[in-house]
């Protein structure tokens, strides 16, 4: 994919954090080479996270995020800090911008602790080098004063994490980029949606319903990504609607290796596809791709134990115009009521909204999360798991309610 077509969820997210007036936005502008963020001497100029897609070689497509100050004050300030903490859920690498004329503050130390708790690789950019001597900061580079709590996997801070820069002169910005690049490459692994589960020349049929919920003139992101992944793996890929599925299978003179369907058509497709052909859904593939398949499978067991009055949270990672037969707000709630026979209380959230406090919920059901990067999805999962709330996925829930969960997940475990 080129720079413009790479989805946000497939980009490495690099977040810039720090106190107000540390120069975060100025550093971001120098880092990106663009006037991305509004710059002012007035504290609190950045009031909401600002996102910018760019290319950072050799990493590739990245998403730069400028954030409000962690020390913002007042009622509005608290909301801004909340938005900044939400960004921490999704960043793969963090840059803490410190005002070199002030030194490391208690607020900065708390931010470093948050990086440690969330296991976020980070770099400290000591800004305003044009206003202080770099030698004055040697004591900071060898400081023993920063302690990490037991949840942190980070080692003691050292000079390898730190670079002195000036957002005014540009000095040190190239060094900062290099350190960020090094952090981006830590534990980077190859990801496949499904191509590692089939062989070259295997025939894979994708079932794509064209109904009122389908976007006009295009297919949705997980379907696009799955097609590209299969083509990259050398599989023979065919696409059809549910009503043409049997004709498509019959027209193939070689056995079909796998059928992948939109989860909403699971029941219909399961009846058509012969039992010796493997079957799964785009949503279930996304759960695996984003790294929470095992958790989602375990979480779906909670459906059988729900009681009248239990609250269930249904989450989507994107925002879209709701149709009368919307999957998250209409279909899944109706199917849950029919399957369980219980009167359930259904809450929904979408986009970047996701509650920190999930106590009181019997279950969280998340979409395939194609619009969220892996770190944010895992963060959402962990928020639920840490509060002993089961966490699962649209496709897995739908397969379970149709009695075909074993079949829909067979390909991953055999």
Describe, in plain words, how this protein is organized in 3D:
- With 414 residues, this protein is of the alpha/beta class.
- The protein has 14 helices and 14 strands.
- The protein has helices at 24-32, 74-88, 106-117, 138-141, 173-184, 221-232, 245-251, 266-272, 282-290, 293-299, 327-340, 374-386, 394-401, 405-413; strands at 12-18, 50-56, 60-66, 93-99, 122-127, 162-164, 203-207, 236-240, 258-261, 278-281, 311-316, 345-350, 361-366, 391-393.
- A 6-stranded mixed sheet has the order 2-3-1-4-5-6, with helices on both faces. The chain has a 4-stranded parallel sheet with strand order 8-7-9-10, sandwiched between helices. A 4-stranded parallel sheet has the order 12-11-13-14.
- A hairpin with a 3-residue loop joins strand 2 and strand 3 (60-66).
- The longest helix has 15 residues, at 74-88.
- It is globular and about 75 Å long.
- The chain starts with 11 loop residues before the first strand and ends with a helix.
- The model is unreliable at 138-156 (pLDDT under 50).
